[in-house]
Amino acid sequence: MPSPVSPSTPGRIAVVGSLNLDYFTRVDALPRPGETVAASKLTLFRGGKGANQAVAAARQGATVSLIGCVGADEGGAAYLRSLEEEGIALDHVRVVPGETGSAFITVDRAGENMIVIAPGANFELRRPEIQKARSLIESCDVLLCQFEVPTPALVEAIQIANRAGVTVVINPSPLHPAFPWEEILTDYLIANETEAEALLGFEPTASATEEITERLRELRTNTLIVTRGGDPTLSFSREGAFHEVPVLTVLPVDTVGAGDAFAGCFSARIAQGTSLDSALRAANCAGALTTLGAGAQDPMPGRGLVDQHETFLPRHP
Ligand code: RIB
């Protein structure tokens, strides 16, 4: 097996996003509306799409700063200590009165999940906090955002990055139908199939490349990346280029955090100067490997493991 190659630059990433405490239960089958089901036990993990993606990027060797809010509670303090251990800079994580965000996650036997979120402190992230982080954002290679924090804060951060020529990666999850795409420019938009279909207004398939190109112009986005679980990842550029990138075949334990591992790893590789194709191959491996353990952050792989698995991917799907 080839030894992993270190990037010539670690890549600097600012992540604007959420921190949640994930209350995790496992059941045989997800409850239907009105149904009560019993789980064997309750486990507490660290989560939130922002922090998950920050951890995923840091494990790829990137220099990562997180911008967000936690509550002034025991869980928030413990969470910050664990992010420090990951080497993530927390100068722009504000501790606010009230509770740290929570997510209630149930996973079934097949690894499918249901998530309900109580945003708590995440909803306290405002434009002034973002303005305080202006020089941090301007000095990054990549700004990485998701949609679990208030939109005005996200728009402010993205506009700072746009003016400074910083690459913007957006994972629009959970999708807000009214997000003001016309106010920002996006370099890479990473969506799952459901999100991509909602954004485009039609199914993202290779045969729809022309319509997708048109829609990307309206969304002021350069490249749309569509993750599809066990199927190859698709990428469509505003210039009409289309790529299909193979994924690892795995038997998932749980899929929570797989999309975050993908977005964090992809952003790290782009910040390190990797080509789009290599970044997508690495991100596919990071996403798949994250499904092999419970919780979002614990199973996220390091750079060496991702590089080893990348060599197992076929060159063409
Ligand atoms: O993407 C997975 C994450 O979504 C979980 O960690 C949970 O906190 C929710 O934000």
Write a short abstract of this structure.
The protein is α/β, with parallel strands linked by helices and 317 residues long.
List keywords for this structure.
nine-stranded mixed β-sheet; binds alpha-D-ribofuranose; 317 residues; globular; UDP-N-acetylmuramoyl-L-alanine:D-glutamate ligase; alpha/beta
Protein model, in words:
32% of the residues lie in helices and 26% in strands. It is of the alpha/beta class. It has one domain (12-18, 49-98, 122-310): 3-Layer(aba) Sandwich (UDP-N-acetylmuramoyl-L-alanine:D-glutamate ligase). The strands form 2 sheets. It has a 9-stranded mixed sheet with strand order 5-4-1-8-9-10-11-12-13, with helices on both faces. Helix 1 (49-58) packs across helix 8. The mean pLDDT is 95. Alpha-D-ribofuranose is lined by residues 18, 20, 22, 47-49, 52, 103, 115, 117, 148, 256-257, 259-260, 296.
